[in-house]
Structure formats: C-alpha cells, structure tokens
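Practice problem: Aspartate-semialdehyde dehydrogenase
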Amino acid sequence: MEKKLRVGILGATGMVGQRFITLMENHPWFEVTAVAASPRSAGQTYEEAVNGRWKMETPLPEFAKKMVIMNINEVEKIAGLVDFVFCALNMPKDEIKEIEYAYAKAETPVVSNNSAHRWTPDVPMVVPEINDSHFDVIPFQRKRLGTTRGFIAVKPNCSIQSYAPALTAWKEFEPTQVVVTTYQAISGAGKTFKDWPEMEGNVIPFIGGEEEKSEQEPLRIWGTIENGEIVKASGVQITSQCIRVPVLNGHTAAAFVNFAKKPTKEQLIAALENFKGYPQEHKLPSAPSQFIRYMTEENRPQVREDVNFENGMGINIGRLREDSIFDWKFVGLSHNTLRGAAGGAVLCAETLVDKGYITAKE
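Answer key — structure tokens:
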C-alpha cells in the first residue's frame, strides 16, 4: 500500500481502545490520525488521559502520547480527519448505535468491537476466516443509510472465538448439538487485577448477557444473506454457561459436540489444521499463518503457555476425545482482547480494505 489509510479510534482510552493503539504502532496499512473519547477526556493528551490506568503489558507507543483527545460527538470534525474509524466505546448500547450511525452517515466506515449492531440485519458480524462473504451485505446497508462510503461492520463476541472456529472447521460433519462452558478472563470486562482485586482466587458463575451471545452469535456468523439481510443458521443447537475466572487474558472453552455424520479423531484434527480463510489466502498483515492448531499434550492448551499463539490471533484446540454421552469433546483457548476484540476488528478492517469496501477519502 503506497499511502497508509487514516484511522480514528473511538473510545481510545479504555482497555480495548488501548489495545487498538498498540496494534496500530507500525501497522503497514493504517495510521492513527484521531483519538476520541467522552467529553470528560476531550482536550487532554492521550498520555495524560491514560496516566495511571494504562492496562497494556507493553509501553504506551510514542506516536500516541501527545495526540489530543477529541470529543466523540464531534462527528463531522473527526470524519474529516480519517478514512475510517474503529469503535471501542463503553456506553449504553442505544447511544453507541446512534454514534456509529452518525459516523457511517458522515461517509466514514465504522469497524466496531461493540455489540450494539451485532443483530442489525444488514450489519455484517464477521470472523474473517469464517464468514468474510457477509461483507457482501454492505451495499444493502449503504442503500438503507443513503451513503456511498459509510457503513458499519462488527466482530462477534470474544467468548465464541475459542470454540466456534473449531465447529466451523467441522462443518462437513454437520454438528447438531453443542454444550459449552467458557472460562473467561477479567480483561473481557475491561479489568486488570489492580482494578478488580476481589477476583484474585475467585470464580463468578455469571457474566451478564454472555450466555445468550455464546449460544446465538455462532448461528449468525454461519448464516446466509437473504434479501439484503443476514439470516442466522438453523440445524445447530448450542447451550452454554459463562464463568469469570481469575485469569488476565485468555478465554478457555470446554465443549461437547454431537454430529450428524460420525467423523474419526484423525478426520477432526486434519480439518482443524487445514482450515484457513480469506486472511490466510490473501496474506493480510494481521492474519495468523495458522488459524487453528491442535495440541496433542494432555495438559494443553494452557493460558500461560499458549494464549499468545500467532501473536494472539491463533486458536488453540486440545483434549479432543470421545465422550460417553456426546460424540466428541474438546478444550479451546483464544486471546480475548486480541483475536476476540481489537485484533479481530483490525483483521476485519484489513479484509474490508482488501475487498475494496474501505478506501481513502478523496
């Protein structure tokens, strides 16, 4: 790419916004030209705004330190500085919906980490290796919004990333029933142990809204475009429990699966290891070279050992074995703020650029 695309980050001071900042450092396609947050942060430098609450394990990138935070409500002003925006806002969903619409109608594509538009029928919710074809709904959305460039695209919830890719790789064997329990890191709530000391040595068996997302969002990413809207898949039943555990980064899933067809273990492992999608085929900058790896050790995957596989963008699967009630069971692991949040959104943006949906403004 001859000239980098200009990107803005909405909600730049929160945990996911901070992750976006780190991922934009030396990105070959994108450069940050605007950072925005709530009015109370506007006017401060980025360094001032995150002082004492920088949550990343790596230092604050130099390029961001002196950038002045803008008010997210200055839509036209920000839209004039960027080619597209990432959204990492943490606000009431109705407010986020309206802000994302405002940027899209200002002819500025929005690639969102937020859940506000995940069920808007003509908004694609995409894991690029799984359902990049859902971006084909964008022309229908643009027609509804009355835009030529602007649109909204989202990535799915972090909790499904540790098992939905495996189920997708096994699509030919026709999964019919899935029982999954996710063990979710505290960074999924935007917290560190410094922020949330009561999580040390603790387990909380409830995360608001997560179980519905875990059960329904895979069906949407497996869905089809019909009459300009995405219709979720049928034929697969998923039930879940979602538990918060004392881990900083990394969502683990324990899943049980029934299949209409009866695959062997060798067939299942081969399907995992050979599975790839648009990002691998087009060699996108943030794409893991191996999307899913199977680990043969009995005690893997482990958060400490494996969460950063492929720079946190790969999926780890292990402990695949026959079950006494279901056909097969396995354990999955994904990095929730990289593959599951900001990194997944960056890969979506790269896919949208490669497909021609995001371009430089004239």
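Discussion: The mean pLDDT is 97. Students who identified this feature from the tokens alone can consider the problem solved.
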